[in-house]
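ARCHIVE CARD
Drawer: 12
Card no.: 0347
Subject: one protein chain, sequence and derived structure
Cross-reference: see card 0346
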Amino acid sequence: MIDIFYKSYKNDFKWLYHSLESLSKYVTGYNEIVILIPESDVKSFDYRKIPQRTRVLTVKEYGNGYLYQQWCKMSAYKYCKSEFILFADSDCIFDHDINLQDYIGTPEILFTDYSKVGDAICWKQVTETMLDREVRWEFMRRNCLVYHTSTLKNIAQKYPNLEHTIMNSERFSEFNFIGAYAFFNEYSKYKFVNTDEWEYVRPKSIQYHSYTEFDKMLKEFSNIVK
């Protein structure tokens, strides 16, 4: 089974409702949707806009919100019951039929040499510091990444102070960390594909820029879900 995990907050709820609507139209093959929101934002959340098989859970958010939402993703195994987790952002809009059963078993993770990723080079040192080893590749090449829930549990066991480390960092990249950890420790559980040897495949969703593209998304949304 596979669950879909969102970490959202009140400024992104307007995005989240559209993401959920598009998910309801196009996405099948999942167990349930798990949405994590801050306790302080409960009154701003419209529970009428969630699909069936959705659980909305709350957390006592603190500190830097950007870092905290990454910690929530790293600890998604605490909230999801399935063997696999797909991570969706509030600004991800699904635009075509997908069956998530096609993405489990041995999930695909794309990776690219850091010499070819432009500004994403900023995640190299961060990830190397966390893993205490050289990391040559960037692993956050697509949205809606799928991981074994057990991978997150294994990371939690190996890094028992992970929450403190993340929340006291200047920056962190959850999906680069998970991808690199899996590459070095659980290679056989995933299908790792170097983008130099990869033929383009349509992404699971369109990811807009939540700070600047809401109006653009609204103009396109009716055609996406019609």
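Annotation on reverse: The first helix runs from residue 13 to 26. Residues 2-225 form a domain with the Spore Coat Polysaccharide Biosynthesis Protein SpsA; Chain A fold (CATH 3.90.550.10).
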